[in-house]
């Protein structure tokens, strides 16, 4: 997509800080990092998010996330991380080219994804599970 910032990065029209690259996937450092090593793992083909990406690309992205995790652990002794995909406006997706955030974590880093909890939602679980069963998911 011509107006997509990540397509421009993937084509190297905008030069990225590449952590890893193969025929399907590029991983480059986020330009507004939450921690050192915060990397975005991106398909080279344009997909918006989880809803339209092909399973082949998704599998490859997860495999690359695993590869980077292992290398980070070996090289930087980073053994804690968050792997996040934001989808849609309310999911706080800003760039609409699929990406996984791999965010290295360490004790006392000041990052906190521990959000407000809503225990009252458990009252809706029975109905929720019924609807999932009715959907034919299994
Ligand atoms: P999300 O869409 O999941 O909210 O996050 C988009 C991420 O892309 C942000 O963390 C942001 O810092 C990063 N980002 C946006 N534009 C660029 C860019 O031009 N280069 C790089 N390296 N990262 C970018
Ligand atoms: Zn794109």
Instruction: Give the termini distance in whole angstroms.
Output: 35 Å
The whole-angstrom Rg is: 17 Å
Report mean pLDDT, rounded to a whole number. 96
- Secondary-structure element sequence? HEEEHEEH
> How much helicity do the residues have?
25-40%
Structural class: alpha+beta
Please count the helical segments: 3
Give the overall silhouette: globular
Name the assembly state: single chain
Point out poorly predicted stretches: none
User: Could you say which small molecules are bound to this protein?
Assistant: guanosine-5'-monophosphate, zinc ion
Strand content: 15-25%
Strand order of the largest sheet: 1-2-3-5-4
- Please outline the major beta sheet: 5 strands, antiparallel
Features:
138 residues, alpha+beta, 28% helix, binds guanosine-5'-monophosphate, binds zinc ion
Can you walk through the features of this model?
- With 138 residues, this protein is of the alpha+beta class.
- Helices cover 28% and strands 18% of the residues.
- It has helices at residues 5-10, 55-76, 125-134, and strands at residues 18-21, 25-29, 39-43, 80-84, 100-105.
- Strands 1-2-3-5-4 form a five-stranded antiparallel β-sheet, covered by helices on one side.
- A hairpin with a 3-residue loop joins β1 (18-21) and β2 (25-29).
- The longest helix has 22 residues, at 55-76.
- The chain is globular and about 50 Å long.
- It binds guanosine-5'-monophosphate and zinc ion (ZN).
- Zinc ion is lined by residues 1, 4, 6-7, 46, 97.
Outline:
It is built from 3 helices and 5 strands. It has helices spanning 5-10, 55-76, 125-134, and strands at residues 18-21, 25-29, 39-43, 80-84, 100-105.
């Amino acid at each position: 997509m011509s107006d997509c910032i990540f397509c421009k990065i993937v084509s190297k029209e905008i030069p990225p800080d590449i952590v890893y690259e193969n025929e399907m996937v590029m991983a480059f450092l986020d330009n507004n990092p939450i921690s050192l090593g915060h990397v975005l793992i991106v398909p080279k083909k344009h997909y918006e998010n989880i809803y339209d990406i092909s399973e082949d690309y998704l599998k490859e992205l997860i495999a690359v996330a695993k590869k980077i995790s292992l290398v980070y652990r070996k090289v930087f002794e980073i053994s804690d991380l968050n792997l996040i995909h934001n989808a849609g406006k309310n999911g706080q997706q800003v760039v609409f080219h699929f990406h996984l955030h791999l965010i290295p974590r360490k004790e006392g880093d000041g990052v906190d994804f521990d959000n407000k909890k809503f225990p009252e939602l458990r009252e809706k679980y029975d109905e929720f599970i019924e609807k999932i069963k009715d959907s034919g998911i299994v």
